[in-house]
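Recall that a protein's primary structure is simply its ordered list of amino acids. Everything else, from secondary elements to tertiary packing, is in principle encoded there. The following example makes that idea concrete.
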Amino acid sequence: MKYIAKFYLWLTGWKVISGVAPVQKCIILGVPHTSQWDFVVSWMFYKSVGGNSNILVNKKFFFWPAKYVLNYMGAVPVDTSKGASLVKQIITEFKNREVLHLAIAIEGTRKPTTKWKGGFHTIAKAANVPVYFGLFDWGHKEVGVSDEIKLSDDLNADLLRIKQWYKARGVAGKHPEKFILGDGLD
């Protein structure tokens, strides 16, 4: 699969800017998330560099034969029913696995939004795992994992720093009109 993924990225004009995250367990922010194609590009990237990334998928989709495909693609089944604590489930996954490179789209939607989700922050702190900038920049056709984000105890300050990092880099989504950084946290 590694060579197929490399060929796909080359064929579609993507430049890989890094390898896998340098630790066994981490959260990788998937930004900007404006299209379903973001998953395809990021999954192909991680396969092309020899990694296995993980994403969260509702457990209701883990039925035969879909569960075999989802498992192969690194999906982590989660219970999203009323009353289920998603954050607790993810922390448990981090504790129970030797390797977990969890990709999270902190925008929480592919629709335009300036209000980003902070669950990654809570998870990273509780599971004691680092967080890395991940990007699939459709403007520059670059995909990869970049710097570690040193989290503070202030979620809002950290979200602002994260937004500023993406803004300074000039990252663009597949649908640029859907990627709104804003100047604040709204």
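The first strand starts at residue 15 and ends at 16. Residues 2-178 form one domain.
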